[in-house]
Amino acid sequence: MTLSTGGLRAVASRKVKIEVIIKRLLILGAGTAGTMIANKLFPRLPVDEWKIVLVDPSETHLYQPGLLFLPFGRYEAADLVKPTKPLLPTGVELVTGEVEKVDVGSSSVQLVNGETITYDQLVIATGTHPRPDMTPGMGGPQMGVSVHEFYTLDGALALRRTLETWTGGKLVVHITELPIKCPVAPLEFAFLADDHFRRLGMRERVELTFATPLSGAFTKPIASDMLGGMLEERQIHVEPDFFIERVDDGVIVSYDDRSIPFDLLVSVPLNMGADFVGRSGLGDELNHVKVDPGTFLAAGSHNVFALGDAAALPISKAGSVAHFAVDVFVENFLDHIAGKAMERRFDGHANCFVESGAHKALLIDFNYDTEPLPGTYPIPGFGPLSLLKETRLNHLGKLAFRPIYWHMLLPGRRLPVPIAMSMAGKKMPLRQPEREDSIL
Amino acid sequence: MTVATIQGREVHVDVEGFLTDPTEWTESLAETLAANIALELTERHWSAIRFARSDFETIGETPTLRRMATTGGVTTKEMFELFPKKPAKKLAYVAGLPKPVGCV
Questions:
Q1: Which of A264, A198, A191 is nearest to A233 (CA)?
Q2: Beta carbons within 10 angstroms of residue A114's beta carbon
Q3: Is B103 a catalytic residue?
């Protein structure tokens, strides 16, 4: 079957019958970015001019921030998954299918089942995905036994089963390569694991290591300094600049021949964009789409955009980035299809709660140019949330985010936080932390 | 951003010493930068440096280790041998390019 662009709609008037061409906005991916875009644009695009079609291989939507808690039994799988269709306006057509290739020359998308869908405007929002198969030894028979990941529902549930009977030993939390989605999640996992084993009275039987290709705990110096201190307080050993070459039997080995033995490895595998991005010649080495970081227009294109984790942006891959990015994109897109210039530029705004265990969390707020700083959010000087500081309220904020995600964020309702990052309420520490990541 | 004097010439650098203006780089400057981080440049180093410079000119970004392996013809293993411990950063430093943006 071929869904060709320019569906015809007969509009009767008193004297003549006019044929109006309906244009098609095709969105690939019904994750956070794709769903928000459909919900925000549907009421803004006249139905007699535009049709929105959304393609996704799954019929369900996964609340990804909840995966972190699944291995520790704080959520059930059913808490994190909902059918996709009711999350969309009835006028949006949802196609269940997997993309084979985008042909930008003919403005069409070929699905694996042979179907072709043409588009007038295309948004690629197919995210980024863990690929244990890309590291020798990682995707083998030990996957789900002594080697785990928690970025998929199956992976997080397998880890939960392992943790339920684990009696202690060497636990290594590991990041393969940057970028990864939600770059604070592995740190949060280490903090939650420390808390989990303390609660079970078995912390002294667990040797915890955090192995990272970064030179410190996090990517940005001030937050890295603070989070590094928190790892130290919890007796979590950091192995920096660890670039994995392979997983052997019970040991991870780096390219510079360092070995870290493990009884239980919780790795964040290499993250890659969808394979079709590479097949279509739209991606970088990791199949993330190269875009203008201000407008999300794909390099060299006038009608292909990429948003959310699918885009190669110089900022964290996170739902919050998708949220702020979509707000900028929607207004720009309406100008773009009206033939006007896209004048708004995304500033790279990101914020994340960082769960630190014992019912506390930190909040970080940053963008392309400004690293996470201490302060208050969202109201300068008041909060009620504290930036770069462990508080109970931040933890409650993180938990409260799940209903906000389903009922406000995905439907495209306005949240009471500014779209662009603001320096109001932020304080630059008087003493800059020592930069650990010296070139030597 | 600060100004540093290397080989009697003023160049602009960031807090970590990376050149902020790639046009201020010269091959002879690279030898001094390499010596600063205890490296002696061989032809293999130069091959990596030349690719990184030309790639930056084309795509406007410092190559990551993955890009060096897939496009630049230098495997990650070899990058660790040539520029020990922190290969992507050391290559960028010696090649007069900004620190790679893979770390976000």
A1: A191
A2: 10
A3: yes
pLDDT in tens, A277-331: 999 999 999 999 999 999 999 989 999 999 999 999 988 999 999 999 999 999 9
Whether residue A273 lies within 8 A of chain B, CB to CB, comes out as no
Phi-psi region of B7 (alpha: psi -120 to 50; beta: other; left: phi over 0): left
Domain ranges of chain A: 2-127+274-337, 131-270, 352-440
Which ipTM value was assigned to this complex? 0.90
- Which residues in B have their CB inside 8 Å of a CB on A? 15-17, 37-38, 64-67, 70-71, 76-77, 79-80, 84-86, 89-90, 93, 101-104
For residue A416, what are the contacts with CB-CB under 8 A and spacing of at least 6?
A378
Q: Where are the domains of chain B?
A: 2-94
pTM of the model: 0.93
Contacts of B104 in chain A (CB under 8 A): 178-179, 183, 219, 313-316
CATH 3.50.50.60 fits A131-270, yes or no: yes
Compute the count of residue pairs across chains A and B with CB atoms less than 8 Å apart: 55
- CATH topology match: A2-127+274-337 vs A131-270: yes
Domain A2-127+274-337 adopts which CATH fold?
FAD/NAD(P)-binding domain (3.50.50)
Whole-Å CA distances, A28 to A44, A117, A121, A142? 19, 11, 11, 33
